[in-house]
From TrEMBL:
InterPro entries: C-N_Hydrolase, C-N_Hydrolase_sf, UPF0012_CS
Domain of life, per lineage: Bacteria
Molecular functions per Gene Ontology: hydrolase activity
Keyword match Hydrolase: yes
Origin species: Aeromicrobium erythreum
Protein name in UniProt: Hydrolase
Any Pfam family matching the protein: CN_hydrolase
UniProt domain CN hydrolase: residue ranges: 1-243
Family stated for the protein in its record: Belongs to the carbon-nitrogen hydrolase superfamily. NIT1/NIT2 family.
Assigned keywords, A-Z: Hydrolase
Length: 264
């Protein structure tokens, strides 16, 4: 499976963000199977008093339509973050569009970022506590089950384990990981931990620029970094994930099979 994590710096101009997505995805190499963009690609969180309910979109709105068109053009599954319209507080939602442009899955962020002095739950609602896995075909006819998690979810290892128990063979982690003291270290460490403990590759796409940490990453099932971006606004990291390597990692390190606690 050929994967790409596309780092952007979204603004509070949704139209400009759609134009940015089109431009960035147009520059991607051919032959990708999975493209992951950050959390809040549709529209940045903005200042704490910015009304996200006023800018949230339905799942058949212009942002998802843009992703669908790009997924068809690329012939790849595209995953990205948006604020999903409801009759009250919106959801912080990931959408996965298949290579045919159809909406294959939605994941509504479970763990809202009520931490480091911020209260995401005052602006957004949490999703159902249920793992979401989407099947991603590859050009060679194989397919990979991809588990979805968003940003702060990364700090909760039980979600990674629930995704693997639901069949995930790779984790996709869109994020808007706010910059600050210790934050880049936490980002790299937690991504590596999820890869190692769940014996899965991880594709993590982060917002970049001044406000966010950036450093989008792709790791293999051993926790080795295959590619990493910088803190800028326009990094693209690509890698090839070998299913045989994942199988070897699980054979050498059968920790999932050796569990005695929390098995379903």
């Amino acid at each position: 499976m050929r994967v790409a994590a596309v780092q952007v710096a979204s603004t509070i101009d949704s139209t400009a963000n759609r134009d940015l997505v089109e431009a960035r995805l147009a520059a991607l190499p051919a032959g990708l199977d999975l493209v992951v963009l950050p959390e809040a690609t549709m529209h940045d969180f903005g200042p704490v008093d910015h009304d996200l309910a006023a800018v949230a979109e339905p799942l058949d709105g212009p942002f998802v339509a843009t992703l669908a068109a790009q997924a068809r053009r690329l012939g790849a599954t595209v995953v990205a973050g948006m604020f999903e319209q409801t009759d009250d507080l919106p959801y912080n939602t990931l959408v996965a569009l298949g290579a045919d442009g159809d909406l294959r899955a939605t994941y509504r962020k479970i763990h809202l970022y009520d931490s480091f002095g911020y209260t995401e739950s005052s602006r957004l609602r949490g999703g159902d506590v249920e793992p979401v896995v989407v099947d991603v075909p590859s050009a060679d006819g194989s397919s990979t089950s991809v588990g979805l998690m968003t940003c702060y979810d990364l700090r909760f290892p039980e979600l990674g384990r629930a995704l693997v128990d639901a069949g995930a063979e790779l984790l996709a982690v869109p994020a808007a990981w706010v910059a600050g003291e210790h934050k880049l270290h936490h980002w790299r460490t937690l991504l590596t931990a999820r890869a190692v403990e769940d014996v899965v590759p991880v594709v993590a796409a982060a917002q970049g620029g001044e406000r966010y940490t950036g450093h989008s990453l792709v790791l293999d099932a051993w926790g080795t970094t295959l590619a990493e971006g910088d803190a800028g606004e326009d990094a693209v990291v690509t890698a090839e994930i070998d299913p045989a390597d994942v199988a070897r990692a699980r054979e050498v390190n059968p920790s999932l099979a050796n569990r005695r606690m929390g098995q379903r």
